[in-house]
User: What shape does this take?
Amino acid sequence: MTNKDFLKLEGKKSGISMDKIMTIFCYVALIAVVILPVFMIIYYTFWDGSKIDFEMFRSVLFQKENLRAMKNTLIIAVFATLFATLVGVFFAWLLGRSDIPMKGFMKFLFSIPFMIPPFLAAMSWDMMFSGRGGYVNKLLMSLFNLANAPLNINSIPGIIIIEVVYYFPFVYMQVVSALERMDPTLEESARIAGANQMYVIRKITLPLTVPAISSGVLLVLITSLSNYGIPSMVGYSKGIFTLPTMIVELMNRSGGSFVGIRQAAALSIVLVIVVAIALVIQRRLLTHGRYDIIKGKSMRPMLIKLRGAKIPLLVFSLFFLTLIVIAPIVMILLVSFNRAYGLPFTMENFTVMHYVNVFTKNAMVKDSVKNSLFLAFSAGAICLVLGTMLAYVIYKVKPKGGTILEMLAVLPYSLPGTVMSIGCILAWSGAFFGISLYNTIWIILVAYIARYLSYVLKSSSAALQQVHPSLEEAARSCGASHYEALKDVTLPLIKPAMLSGFFLVFLPCMRELTTSILLYGPKSRTLGVAIYQLRINGQINQAAALSVITILLIIIMNNLVKYITRDRRKL
Assistant: This one.
């Protein structure tokens, strides 16, 4: 008797099976946290409360400042993606296919940008290169006797540079994995035929890694299009807006009025359309050609000898990684201990008073720490339960419409955080059943669940597909109920994946800014919002101190995730 036969028999006995209950619950939950917010954005964009209204959308679309924001968004996204791809592919080839030394150390440095929230990185670069006040600019002006600051990070090129620095690892991680698993006979055949090394790289190696490159490109492009933290930290003071920052600006100007929300919703649709176009382009790109680079042979590609270029490339790589990874962290650390922002870094100017003030004299900071911990644990726990349930329903129960369930769960991850925030405001401000979560911590929780549910879904799905149905069937044939078989057999086997999924949700929730910036209330600020507000209020040293604490917490949690994942591989 198969697993499905058991489910049918149990359903006849109880009237409705446990699997049907789980399936219904998953649909209801996804309608509440995904469908309603997305529907409400579309509804209120074209409905003024009494009639269909396209004029508002047209006027918002063609306002000069909004057109400028769209132009800035596209320029930043295109150039950041282009340069991040070039840098990511170069380092992927260097570390994946060459004999350059110190690979382990450099790979560790590449993992650090993943652990630092982009808005904290932007704040650090602003401290170093913001006109005449930036510490590095002041040093360069002093050394070379310059009248003006040599670098200005508060510009569109500055935003592009920061995004390249912190997004190129997306491309690197995708491409280096493909390069390390490539069938070596493809390149060896070309060399035997007389092709030189550059020709092999250009005509064989890179074309065969198109899926990996396009996947990294898409990640960079979507992240850049939807990013709020970097443009707001670096560009806001100079009046440089992108679509995400303009959406927040429209909300702030209107004071949360219905008109302002509708305008923000209209811009949100524009942002979603741009992201959707990027997804379509990537899909069309992968429909042409074959890219099967992994064969059924246990061989690793031959490492390319750099010879005389080895030392220069090593020096360049270490200098580059020091500049983009180590220098920003050191800058935040130094500013957090400096008595006042702008003073030179000398021992007499160092103090721990900013750490003391942050945790003893600033009620906003203490509340934000509590709120972030509550939101991270709550979102992680709820996503753990709901994501695992979704994975079980999709891959074990396999109901009709299971693909739709998976698409709904993954959809919010493809949407910018500001878009989901607008949707949550419209959906949970009393429009349905009189339930109003606006300006409370609960609306942030709903948005976090929607945005990060796919993390647990993917983690648990991979583990569930490794559990053969015969294990549950054996338990059922011995008299165990469906619930007992699930509790005593399936869940223990996928427990490491579930815990890993929990921390994969916990981690971004602790550092989140883009979603929270539109949803926080007087008593529901998060760590990201607190750091951001300290920064824009001029309390830069306290912002740096809180940033150091946040980074340390993120590093600890990231290592915990790696430990759990390592244990899972041993099972």
Observations:
- The longest helix spans residues 363-397.
- The radius of gyration is 26 Å.
- Residues 11-15, 289-298 have pLDDT under 50 and may be disordered.
